[in-house]
Amino acid sequence: MQPTPASVSFDLNGAAVSEQVPPATLLAALLRDRLGMKSVRLGCGEGVCGSCSILVDGRSMRSCLMLAAQADGTSITTVEGYAARPDLATVQAAFVEGFGAQCGFCTSGMMATVAEYLADGSVSDHGDPVTIRSALNAVACRCTGYQQIVRLVAGLAGER
Amino acid sequence: MDAPTAPSCRSTGTSVRRRGLARIVAGKAAYVPDQHLPGTLDVAFARSPVAHAHIRSIDIGRAAALPGVVAVRTMRDLPGLGSLSSTWEVAGQRHCPEHALATDRLRHVGQAFAVVVANDRATAERAAALVEIDLEPLPALLSVDAALEPDAPRLYPDWPDNEAARAEWLVGDPDAALDGAALVVEESFTSQRVHPLSLETRGILAAPDGEGGVTLWVSTQAPHQVKMAVASALGLPEHRLRVIVPNVGGGFGMKAYPHADEALLARLALDLGRPVRWIEDRRESFVSSAMGRDQRVDLRVGFDATGRILALDGVVTLDKGALIGQSSLGTAWVGAAFLPGGYAIPAVRIIARAIVTNTPQTGAYRGYGQPETNLALERTLDIAADRLGISPAEIRQRNFIVPAQMPHMIATGVTLDSGDYPRLLDMTLERFGYEEARARCAAAAASPVRRGVGIACYIETSNMAPSAAAAYLGIRAGSFDLLTIRMEPTGHVRIDTGQTELGQGISITLAQLCADELMMPVEDVVVAHGDTALPAFTSYGTAGSAGAGVGGAAVIKGAARLRDKLLLWGAHLLQLDAAAVELASARPLGDEGAPRAVVRDKADPGRQVAVSEIARAAYFFHSAPDGVDPGLEASVGYDPPGFAISYGAVAVEVAVDAETGKVAIERMTFGHDCGRVINPAIVEGQISGAVAQAIGATLYEAARYDEEGRPLSTSLMDYMLPLAADVPPIDLVHLETPSPLYPHGVKGVGESGTIAVPAAIMNAVQHAIGTGTTLTALPLSAERVWEAMRTTAQI
Ligand code: FES
Ligand code: FES
């Protein structure tokens, strides 16, 4: 017998979404496979690498660890929705200008982490490289060595 | 009259924005898992639970009966599916064909012995678990030492022992020189097995093309090699195959060679008449992709009393795992050939050997054997310096090959093409503040946080030897590039390259070179790549730090050919002789616009025709220059003239917690010379990315197995990747000595960051904890460092 599907409704990149999903469905799978949000990358599928991180109510969350049902009532922003949000579009532009990605597989998660960091009011100096590095610890990047990402985040912090 | 020639708009040497980043940040990059074809079936493998066993029988009945399963196959059900043979093949090498599925024996935990094709991945995995196998266990050899025991069982019964391949170098009389040496340092250095671990795993989508052929989408660095290998394994003519490389989420050598599973997927697609897809999951990546490093270097080096090296005697032993695979002893070979580094060593004996064990195979990983042997020699130099009472910097300076000796063939036959090793070390140490830092460390000798500085120098092979010399290297592939450059009727240029964009930035690099040759803005050049249907070919894949060197030199050659055509057409339109015209970048008089490429009369520069007009004329012409083909296209082949040897010096400062042994890398100065720099930001990205990987491999990354040969790391929870806070700021020091061998002077840089970082860190840690216990093994886990400090304290 199939378990009863759960109904989930949330805001996805500014549009209301309502889906019926089997209760065990992961948010990453719902976003990628059903809603076409290909920017959600799966580097490990078990909550370690951070490449699947998305913004849920402004916080970066690992979508491979969340059940779709947990997203009910939230507001989700994936990279597909960044261009429409000036604060997030700035992050995108900085990654392009600042050589913030190589293969790009971690980039969606990395940008979500950076967006959350820049918006975090509890950080006293967003431009401090040590603080930046510890924030970036949430996402593993195998290509860049983080150098250029740290620099571009410091640049973004300086513009605020 | 024309305005004076505008300063040419050179793009090389500047950090032009990388291609493809806009798609990446928009989430539009498409990797193999993002490719969708209707009706695609998913593939999963049944894998060996044991390290070594004879297969008595395999029963696929229960698996095949599971609803949703479309096919289950063992090697027996795939008659005619051939195997892959090694890309590296040295004299006397033993053979073990690389099959997609085990035939009669299982040789490592995780080896695939059956494949399931189902409507979805979950069903395929469930069915794979239902494939039953009847095994007769065999003793497992889990280390090279076990495999080298005289009475060790053999992995391959038709071999006399477990040595897969060997190579030797002998120059001078090392034994006599060692006998006469004032100091002989003798140690064994080990670099543990690591996982290259691209964040995107391997992935394959294979679809029948409806005409008897197959199209494959593969996450690979080597589409042409995949095409050749698949064609040969399937017995298909190559023009029936097409390999497309979409976005690739990192390769690092792990994706540099073809795999037997690519042939299997192509075969399944043909047999079933539907697209089939396999996306390696993270867990299986620890058994289904080739691991890196895993070498031991047993080294004896003799010095005179002043620290000059008299002789080197070394054995490089590679744990090959269960398969000779594509790279055979390649990483040991390259490690051995580059073991002498940038130092003058008169007498040398080196043996490189690859030993098979019952573990997953090892293969190419960024650095390709060089970090392992660099660790051995650069550690040895520090040990010798300490015993001789000279500084680490001084002992290196006393042994360097100096610019006046360049080009210089070292004992192993490698020719160092150019460079100034002593100067770069000086520059690096000066920027680092070496002397002050050493004094600071001495002051921290007894404190709870010990401090140490370490240096190490490296040379890096790049750009490959000529194809004809590949046989000497034992490579059954050429090293050349074929490419096509076409100027479109609008005057814009398209390069079709066989090089693969992996995020390293090869597209913009090639575009920059072409733009400068043709005096065009770089925006007017696009680079197409990643498709074997393009008129281009790269014979060794995008690997070996050769993309900018070989692929770039091919662009220069193609652009020169195109320029010649432009001159012919331009002269024709100007009604001049071709010898009377030149290509120039000029701005028409009174025009404030950007300079444009023109062909003009050398004697009367005002008489000119814009390249864009020439392009139009070449496609929409009524009269063509004599004997010139219509259109503006050039196809060229470029075979590299020889290795271009990059080099560098690394200085690091570490802090070691005396309580726990934990090592923190506080800062790093990285001096390097990769010849002419095309795009500084890309060079920086290559170095810092490689340095981060080297830090992981030096401090904590390790692929380990239990006493039954089962992998202990099977996820990112137990295989730690370096994160942002683990990597210090890297201060780059640049020196540019153009390679005289290459038209653009470029040497490779992709692997530079991996080579000397382990040795520099180990030298620094040794400096921090004192020399009582000699550090020789990686990784420098807190436990290992703590143990060394404890032993030292007891001495
Ligand atoms: S895929 Fe979600 S954390 Fe790695
Ligand atoms: S850019 Fe490749 S993993 Fe970060």
Task: State the helical fraction of chain A.
Answer: 25-40%
Number of helices of chain A: 5
Strand content of chain A: 15-25%
How does the major sheet of chain A shape up?
5 strands, mixed
Oligomer: heterodimer
Question: Which features does this protein show?
Answer:
heterodimer, A: 160 residues, alpha+beta, 5-stranded mixed sheet, 5 strands, 34% helix, B: 795 residues, Aldehyde Oxidoreductase, domain 4, Aldehyde Oxidoreductase, domain 3, 7-stranded mixed sheet, 21 helices, 28% helix, disordered N terminus, binds FE2/S2 (inorganic) cluster
Give the topology:
The complex is a heterodimer of chains A (160) and B (795).
Chain A: E1 6-12, E2 15-21, H1 27-34, E3 53-56, E4 59-62, E5 75-77, H2 86-97, H3 107-119, H4 129-136, H5 147-159
Parallel strand pairs in A: 1-5
Antiparallel strand pairs in A: 1-2, 3-4, 3-5
Chain B: H1 21-25, E1 41-47, E2 53-59, H2 61-65, E3 69-73, E4 105-106, E5 112-118, H3 121-130, E6 132-137, H4 144-148, E7 163-171, H5 174-179, E8 183-194, E9 203-208, E10 214-218, H6 223-234, E11 241-244, H7 260-272, E12 276-279, H8 285-288, E13 292-303, E14 309-321, H9 330-337, E15 347-356, H10 370-388, H11 392-399, E16 408-409, E17 415-416, H12 421-432, H13 434-443, E18 449-462, H14 467-473, E19 481-487, E20 493-496, H15 506-517, E21 525-528, E22 537-538, H16 547-574, E23 581-586, E24 596-601, E25 608-610, H17 611-619, E26 632-638, E27 644-657, E28 663-673, H18 680-699, E29 730-734, H19 752-755, H20 757-769, H21 782-794
Parallel strand pairs in B: 1-12, 10-11, 14-15, 20-21, 28-29
Antiparallel strand pairs in B: 1-5, 2-4, 2-6, 3-5, 7-15, 8-13, 9-10, 9-12, 13-14, 16-17, 18-27, 19-20, 19-22, 19-26, 23-24, 24-25, 27-28
The complex binds FE2/S2 (inorganic) cluster (FES) (2 copies).
One FE2/S2 (inorganic) cluster binds at residues 42-45, 47-52, 62, 64 of chain A.
